[in-house]
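Table S2 (text version). Query chain:
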Amino acid sequence: MSFASRFLARPARFAEADAADPERAAPVTSRAEEARRALLARIGEFVETHDLAVTASNLATICGGLSGSHPELAQAFAAREIAGEPIDQRWLDTLGRLDPDNHSRIAELEALMDKLEYSLMRFAQTARSAQSETSDHRGALGAQIEAMAGADLSPAAAGELAQVLDLSRAMLARIEQVEAAMARSQDETERLRENLAKARMEADVDHLTGLPNRRAFERRLVSASIEARAKGEVLSLAFCDVDRFKLINDTHGHEAGDRVLCAVAATLNECAGDACFVARHGGEEFVLLFYGMDKEAARTRLDAIRRAQAARQLMNRETGKPFGRVTFSGGVAEVTEDSDTRSALARADAALYRAKQEGRNQVMVG
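Corresponding structure-token output:
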């Protein structure tokens, strides 16, 4: 039975049973319990059938599709099954990108960080202003104390003045303490702002390759797609996956594999040009945004990069053994081809899958 049939069959049977004998229809609570058990069973069967890991992200994606609570996921599952393409972990990871709440969560986090940075900036400005005013008052009070201390007064008046001077000097000492504390607060605020800026920068960087990471890419994809549609320009994206990377790790070790990833990242970054945003999406996968290029132009550009990478003979400098040719496969899709930005991710991933299935070391369009 197909995914679509399984999705629709059970509710239909419930409806038929209820219509045939209303008096025997199950209570609402019982029906809900049975539906819940059925959904759990289908999720378990789905996981076993496709040999998927039992993780929170996998279960959330699978539940969204099987329950029908996420129509886009349900459609993606059905289309994958109809096409006869495997539902494996890699594809499920890609499908997880269709989470409609993901971009809103990123936006909320960015908004909170912006508010924090603004609050720190305002506090630093207030602290500087208060410190300046306090310094002015301290100077004026100190000058007045000196002037009063030198006055020629009668003994009785001098005694009263001494009390005033003692109180004024205590106030002056307290002002100096407050001024020092404000200076320390200002320094700490500046350090916090610097640390926040550094954290925001590091949060967007893949520390192995030095490229922007998935978080940076997803934010750039949203902003770039909005801008492209507003200007009536084209925008394309591509997924690239290093061919037979597991074999490289198994043969040469993971440290050598990391150096291969860095080499591929360098090739992508050097050859992509200014009209392209390159990021590491995770593992051996990279993603590119092509500004002002339709999918055919983007495919041509990416294929040139692929040829440049394939022409390089890499050597494991630790062992002296050659890696041989390290190639990658790619899948390209045009973001501005339809109104749903996220669908381009699925189309590019499907094109990448075909490129892998049909021999690797090639670029296909989705």
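Notes on Table S2: The longest helix spans residues 155-203. The CA atoms of residues 70 and 298 lie 31 Å apart.
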